[in-house]
Write a structure and sequence with these properties.
By secondary structure, the chain is mainly β. It has one domain: Lipocalin. An 8-stranded antiparallel barrel has the order 1-4-5-6-7-8-9-10. It is elongated, with a radius of gyration of 20 Å.
């Protein structure tokens, strides 16, 4: 994961010299609930977990380098603080465990944006991102915590409406996903659920929102 982030930074630095414009993007989005579940067999025993990553406010910022009026490269950060009620089941007689967890997700990603100007004030855009999602989970019942870093990707579409030459309003919709990111091993710990068992499920979250865009043409 560190190698992927380092590669993203190297690519961005290479594009900086070619940039015709720099942009600072401020994001504020609402993320909708995502149900997750997974089934796992280990040592002749069967387990599963199910739960929900609750919706919440996803905020962040991005530094973008516009190569021309049609293409841009962006390094961005997003954060989500939410709740995650979870249930773990051991079908071999271990019973059922549940927890209402505090979940914080930090996305560090890089990607490309494509633009289609409609006029001097309005442009449409679409984009994709690759990077890492850093999960921090706390169980308030016993104050235990776990963390993990997983591969993440995202896509988005939207429009920028410029109020002036340097400031505009951003409207967008998108998806964020972390592959094999959340599960019994992360939420309950190997000692708290069943020794040696760790099963994971991918997270897929849809969001709507917008933000502000600040333009800094390169002189």
């Amino acid at each position: 994961m560190k190698k992927l982030l380092s590669l993203c930074l190297i690519v961005l630095m290479a594009f900086m010299a070619q940039a015709q414009e720099f942009r600072l993007n401020a994001y504020g989005n609402y993320v909708f609930d995502d149900g997750i579940d997974s089934y796992y067999s280990y040592g002749g025993s069967n387990y599963d977990f199910s739960g929900t990553i609750k919706g919440g406010f996803l905020w962040g910022a991005g530094l973008e380098y516009k190569l021309d009026k049609y293409k841009g490269v962006e390094l961005l950060y997003h954060r989500l603080d939410t709740k995650a009620p979870m249930v773990w089941r051991d079908y071999s007689g271990g019973g059922t465990k549940s927890a209402d967890l505090d979940l914080a997700v930090n996305y560090i990603m890089a990607g490309g944006n494509g633009y289609k100007p409609l006029n001097e004030k309005v442009e449409l855009f679409s984009g994709f991102q690759l990077g890492a999602a850093i999960f921090n989970v706390t169980n308030p019942a016993n104050n235990s915590s776990e963390s993990a870093t997983k591969f993440a990707w995202g896509i988005k579409i939207g429009s920028n409406i410029m109020a002036s030459d340097k400031v505009g309003i951003k409207l967008q919709a998108g998806l964020l996903s972390s592959v094999q990111s959340v599960g019994g091993g992360l939420y309950f710990g190997t000692g708290g659920a069943s020794a040696g068992v760790s099963t994971y499920s991918s997270m897929l979250q849809f969001y709507l929102g917008g933000g502000l865009v600040f333009r800094f043409p390169k002189k």
